[in-house]
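Key idea: predict the complex, not the pieces.
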Amino acid sequence: MTSTLDIVIAGGGRVGFQTAELLADRGHDVTIIERDERIVSEIADEWVATVIQGDATNPDIIEQAGIERADAIAALTGETGLNLAVCLAASELSPEIRTVARVDRQAGEAYTRFVDAILFPERAGARVAANELVGSDVQTLVDVTGDLDIMIVRVAEGAPAAGKQLTDVRFPAGTLIVSDDDDGHQIARPDTTLTPGRRYIVAVEPDVAEEVMNLMRG
Amino acid sequence: MSGSQTRSPEAELGLLDATMIGMGAMIGAGIFVLTGLAAEIAGPAAIIVFALNGVVTAFTGLSYAELAASIPKSGGGYAFVREIFDDLSSFIMGWMLWFAYMIAGALYALGFAPNFLELLHVYGIVPPPDQVGAVVLPLVDTAVPLAFLLAFVAVLGLVLLNAISTAASGSVETIFTIIKVSILLVFVAFGLASPMFSGAEFQPLFPEGSGAAAVLPAMGLTFIAFEGYDLITTVTEEVKNPRENIPKAIFLSLAVTVIVYLAVVTVAIGTLGAGELADAGEAGIAAAATSFMPTGLPIIQNGGALVVFGAVFSTLTALNAVVIASSRVAFSMGREGQLLPSFGQLHHRYGTPFVAILASAVVMLASVALPTQSAGNMSSLFFLLSFIIVNVAVIRLRRERPNMNRPYEMPFYPAPPVIGVVLNLILTGVLVEYLLQTDPLALVLSVAWILLGGLAYVAINRLKGRSDRKMTDSDTTMTPEAED
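Result:
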């Protein structure tokens, strides 16, 4: 029972790499499968994930990525068909694994018959663009993410900070507990208690995300 | 943030800082404490002992470099093996490495105490170390040797320091290491210039009776002197451009350390002679220094005091390094679910792996009661064993994941890891045989620790199995969710 997940990402392009970086910042173990030698070298420079160079549809390559131990796989290349093939192959090799496929069209919901979740990054990007264009003082969480990671975190039972008041918990600099639970009625105060099981809006810088996760999630 | 205090995050380390972390951990008790013991076993051939150990370690250094460059994790040897091996093997690796660091901590503390007494003695505060008796503790009404008490207090102090504040950053370590190396260089310079060295006698090179064969057990005992470069791989995440700098830092720190050691051991034997060096035991280098360093200097009075201070300082900083290293191994094992989860948690207020540090402290404090030689033997033994696993890990990773991206590939594969395994195995065998004859206690304790590990492994898996069943229903909703 660990809070560190083993995650395989097929495709180390823009979407795949950003995903890997976010996950690694939160302390998860990420392995990227990437075909292109140039991209492999770029990823290696960033030091966020182990990289297997090869074709993600090749079972031998998927196995080298440690699929039998992985908790989840995300196929994030630009080709929907390939992504689905990778997820299906992964489920075949490791039936318990959680699969996420990147798709390229709106009708993607139908794919959830084959994979646990789908994602349509163009759509998500478009939503951000639309928000920006309309220009509003109120922004949804994802819009402000320059480097900051703003997320809702549920405090786990038994985590180091669980049940403690904010004054008693020394978070690393670069952390801000924003809301007093996820109803969002109140901004957190020094005497706010981090109740296990409740969710809090938290803003963190990527450097310290892992530590914050440790404190709140155990 | 919301009215509460914060801590500053860690600094970024350059190639120099990373190299200094490795050197700082290596140049500590190993050279100051074990030179005398090595001279006792091998005579003037102690020089050869240190040189050969450097060669043996270099092969494992190549393996560490390749693993550290291709597996982007900070956990050191345990993290790499965890990535490659199944549950049991990686548990054993973690368990052994954890012990190796803790016993090394005890060794450094035991090396610190006599040198500290020597330092006090130089200034006339206490009688010579061998005449310092025991202090009577009024509470427990028994006499405890002062040296033991000092070692105990040193461990306790550094443990508390690390338990309540996040570790001193790499740049402090760099300054510390530069101080240590400078002091050793002063020692070497004065030693070479002293009249005692001009009459240096290195013959007979090997001790009578055992001959050249005496080199091997001495290598086993002093192997610990080259432990430390592996600590570079525990901070990789904080190092700039790690895939280039980590392998470089490993090789640089090893090379410079070998040179420093050879110079120091040559001077120590050349001036004091192997016999007297052996008699001085843990304070061998300090004794050599007081024999030739100039006296009547301003402030420090006796030049030898500088080197004794170096020994005190080095053993303390090396002790600090292994307190951190041992708790990091226990912390990683906790994170991976291979020890109780509380080992993998940061303290809510201090931000330190509190439980991991305290657990390591218990073993370290208990081990301080061991004789210095036993502590050296045991930590060498466990480092040898874990280095064997690291070499095997490289071979296994190459075979099982040929397509893995390796920013640094060792030359002449598979020769280095195979040679590394063979040489480490030979030293392990020699050390075990030597222990059978001279130090059965160390061997018994080593076996006991491994058996205890077996019990812990079974118990933790039982516990995990139970809580896993409980958690499966509720766990799906427990993941942190990012809003999109």
